[in-house]
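Annotated sample (chain length 156).
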Amino acid sequence: MSIEQGDALPTSELVAADGSALALPAWGAGAPFALYFYPKDDTSGCTREAQDFTALMPEFTALGVQVLGISKDPPAKHQKFTAKYDLAVPLATDEDGALMEALGVWVEKSMYGKKYMGIERSTFLFDSSAKLVRAWRKVKVPGHAAAVLDAARALG
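Output written by the structure step:
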């Protein structure tokens, strides 16, 4: 499955870093929001991406745009990752992978000739009615958070 521009965000349950339930799209209700999916806490690319979003959080906040980082890592690992790098971007866990499946980011990957299932680094920007405005797939980290911010500015 996948999601296309103009589609509504499917309803799903995530777990926030503090262990509480986080329901989408209610979490972003009434305001634009960005969901970014990343493979693993505390790896070089994922750390850089979280730091880049953290650095731009004041600008996202000023625009009224929420940002949420999502992986399969458990809440306790998100807490350690957030504390280690003083991250300002909230993180959540898609434990059963249902949202990742629905958005088409749980994909077959290949490393050293070995195939496995994993998270394709992707970001989705939704408007205030939880309709998809823009999707970035197979994201390269350098400059990505700024590109999402530019797209968020265009929503206004």
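Annotation: The chain has one domain: 12-155.
Annotation: The CA atoms of residues 17 and 57 lie 18 Å apart.
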